[in-house]
Design a protein that fits this description.
Layout (H helix, E strand, L loop, with lengths): L12 H5 L4 H16 L12 E10 L9 E13 H14 L15 E13 L12 E7 L32 E6 L3 H5 L3 H11 L8 H6 L1 E13 H10 L5
Antiparallel strand pairs: 1-2, 1-3, 3-6, 4-5, 4-6
Helix pairs in contact: 2-3, 2-7
Amino acid sequence: MSLVAHEPPKPAGEEAEQACLPEHCFHCFDTLFCALTYKKPIPPTFPENKFPLFVTWNTVSSRPGKPHRLRGCIGTFDPKPLRAGLAEYALISAFRDHRFRKIEESELESLECSVSLLTDFEDASSYLDWDLGVHGIIVSFPHPSLIPVAPTPSSAPSPLSSSSSVPTRSVLKHSFSATFLPHVAEEQGWDKIETIDSAIHKAGWTGRISEDLRRALSVRRYQSRSCAVTWEEYVRWRTDNGGAM
């Protein structure tokens, strides 16, 4: 996942609403299928717009009612041309998500592909200034030891106290960042604070999460247009378009 500083362009009106199409997911599936089987890919025909994007692979349970299991998810906040960007991140999320082993050909029949195209990036006024099920969030923060803490009588430093246990700047990880797509909090059953705290941990902070840390967060919110297709739907699309299986 790439976190970049510049503002992605915002697709407007109807373009944003119609941004994500099943053909985007079919293109991701086709890229992965052909990479694993050396078959000839079907050239994409959807419009070549630019979006920040994420590609997610899920394993679909064979048991009715059992939730899907994440198999890989990586994306970028850098706007990408869709045809090349979806193909690139279909493979990155399948082969280079270090939380999982690489996807293999034998797994294809159990997979679902989801594409999220990101829009409407805004700075949040506080760590709670976003809506569950509507917004994804990007949180970033400095090392908590560098965050000023409002003094209290009990926490005032003693002139005899030693600073030898305080990490120095040379050994600190100076900044942390993480994101959750809009659907994640609802799928996990989290409220806003649980989502924020989970993002802090995802960013790599393993210590205590204080209210001072939450208030020090820089939070950007965004929305997404998403779609998903199963392996069976992809196979139907590929054969209808003259592709060999």
